[in-house]
Amino acid sequence: MGFVRIARYTEGDDPVYGLVDADGKKIAEVSGDPFYQRIELTGKVTTVDEVRLLAPVIPRSKVIGIGRNYADHAAEMGNDVPDEPMMFLIPNTAVVGPGDPVVIPTKLTSEVHYEGELAVIIGRMCKDIEPEEAKKVIFGYTIANDVSARDLQRGDGQWARAKGMDTFCPLGPWIETDLDPQDVSIVTRRDGEVVQDGHSSDMVHGVAHLISHCSRAFTLLPGDVILTGTPAGVGPVVAGQRVDIEIDAIGTLSNPFVNAE
Ligand code: MG
User: Fold this and answer.
1) Cα of 103 to ligand 1 centre, how many Å?
2) CB burial readout 173-207, b (16+ within 10 A) else e
3) Residues 43, 166 share a domain
4) Domains: count for the chain
5) Which of 35, 66, 112, 153 is found 20 to 30 A from 19 (Cα to Cα)?
6) Ligand 1 centroid to 32 CA: how many Å?
7) What is the pTM of this model?
């Protein structure tokens, strides 16, 4: 079995899930919610171009962000690398899908940055697991933009608003279930210009350690998402610009930025 990609999408009606082929061109619809139910092919096949892809998961419980998990990014922000993973929480109301606009609340912030990241999606409820067991609870991987209002991040003393505002957590374009999370490249483009070019082998704390560490603080539930941190090259993004984040083994997450009315 090769790559198995799972997308959530709509053709105008209620969202459904489907399996995406290796070329990223066709989607075979499935019935059921893959996080909680056995899924079955319905026999309906359509093309990716004909549907609207949605965030592949809307976490019922939480998105956990990890800060300063690449030494070069910690350094560019003037921070040391923490001994243990640094966690923050993002509400599920921040999640949007591929192509959806990130809305900059201009009354609250004037300094918004992109952060391209590999996102891990949890498939099984777990608590207090060892790193060696982490693989068993992973459903798959997608791409995240951990959009961050730097002025609020500095001023608020914690990061709830800076990283958790509505639309600040684009996820997608789909879930890749079969990849090595420590062997993917992460390339971010702002209006086509490469601004981040990192590799997940440079994570300070690898995915297995992150999951274990998070599970000691929180019960992890199916559909929970862990953002694994961003490599160097973060920078500002303003209304009218587009940010594309490409992870070779998954695809590209692309979002336009707009100002709030
Ligand atoms: Mg981040």
Assistant:
1) 18
2) bbbbbebebeebebbbbbeeeebbebebebbbbbb
3) no
4) 2
5) 66
6) 32
7) 0.97
Q: How do residues 154-195 score in pLDDT, each as one tens digit?
A: 999 999 999 999 999 999 999 999 999 999 999 999 999 999
Structure tokens at 157: 């003393």
Q: Which two tokens stand for residue 106?
A: 């201009």
Ligand 1 centroid to 72 CA: how many Å?
13
In-domain check, residue 58? no
Q: What pLDDT digit, counting tens, does each position of 72-103 carry?
A: 998 999 998 989 999 999 999 999 999 999 99
User: Cα(238)–Cα(34) distance, rounded to whole angstroms?
Assistant: 36
155 lies in the same domain as 247: yes
Q: Is 191 among the domain residues?
A: yes
230 CA distance to ligand 1 middle (Å): 5
Give the structural domain span for 17.
3-53
